[in-house]
Write a structure and sequence with these properties.
Two copies of one chain form a homodimer. Chain A has ten helices and no strands. Chain A is mainly alpha-helical and about 200 residues long. Chains A and B meet through helix 1, helix 7, helix 8, helix 9 and helix 10 of A and helix 1, helix 7, helix 8, helix 9 and helix 10 of B. The structure holds a DNA duplex (30 and 30 nucleotides).
Amino acid sequence: MKVTTNRSPENTRQRILDAAFDEFHKNGFQGGSLNRIVGGAGTTKGAVFHHFKGKKDLGYAVVREIIHPHFNQQWSDPLAYSTDPITDLKRIFRQGAKKKIADGGLVHGCPVNNLAQEMSPLDEKFRKSLEKIYVAWRETVAAAFARGIKAGKVRKDVSPPKVAAFIVAAQAGMAGTAKNSQDEELLLQMSHALFDYLDSLKP
Amino acid sequence: MKVTTNRSPENTRQRILDAAFDEFHKNGFQGGSLNRIVGGAGTTKGAVFHHFKGKKDLGYAVVREIIHPHFNQQWSDPLAYSTDPITDLKRIFRQGAKKKIADGGLVHGCPVNNLAQEMSPLDEKFRKSLEKIYVAWRETVAAAFARGIKAGKVRKDVSPPKVAAFIVAAQAGMAGTAKNSQDEELLLQMSHALFDYLDSLKP
DNA sequence: TTGACGACATACCGACTGGTCTGTATTGAT
DNA sequence: ATCAATACAGACCAGTCGGTATGTCGTCAA
């Protein structure tokens, strides 16, 4: 049983997905070029159309198999069993911001947000699969706040769904405006204000 | 001095700008087609390249002459002399949301945000001219909060620039997530949470 | 050994892109 | 009336796009 040489479909497919994610992240979906993707993946059109039905299908796969899992891992999982969402959200945000700045993610912005802004009005499948990510993130935050209330770490009169919806929106907006301003200082300012808001939800 | 018949450059130019705004708002800048723009404007390529250097130049003009003034009129001007930003922001948001829903702007989102997300990493001129709008909006909000503090309508310990940066980001994020979810109810939830936040800044 | 199928590579296609070129009608100044 | 300059119209261009058709090579079952 050979591990791999050159002829390994899964490997090829994954390389295409990775290259496509990169291309779409940098140039958007419409601006993204299949020719550049096959170049980046070190393969050809034949391979792409063998593994995917077309550009859109490739786009859906990128959302489903690259963006969504990565998003869960970075944002959702750490909050899965939190009973003190205010403290934990602050920590997650700090980490996330640091990571964004470090690997230059500030330049190209949040992949979820980017694709959503560009494609959700143009393609219903894109909208739905991206909305899934937002819904999951909102539900995770809301559930954490509900637990936080029970644990006495959050004021009893806050509405978890409302607060969660607002926090998710604020996060998306912060990523977007920070990307546009290219100003780390502004990102810190906004984070500080968000933290103040979170603290205002303490009992 | 004839007012106008058919040969009126200003009119033609304006029609091109309007059609371009529409096209870019619907399909983004990269996805926007010059052919569709000339179709929508009822003119030809010759006219477009007579009035503008090219697609990018047309895009800058749309930002400068259509989006920016319109944005000021809707968001900035009503806050220009406010001494009670919390009350006034809530009113402006309510109106803005209602208008968005009414004319279907919820589908295509905020033009500033859309263009910024798509083009700011790809073209420095786009980024700068869009950043101007954000900066102006932040400064307007910050100035209003500064006056609000003096007038005793806002807590003395809030930092106007920080709060302004956060509010602007939250607004952008709310518009974006609402557009993606296509859910008016969600927009109301987020608005409610934003209002709670604003109220928490009262003395 | 052979046949069949999966996994690509390559050449190619029509559609469409932004942009140019040339011609022409209109305008205002002289 | 004349003459430039302006304001377009429309044909046309090279290049790129996503997508397809066909061929080749490796792998595995029989």
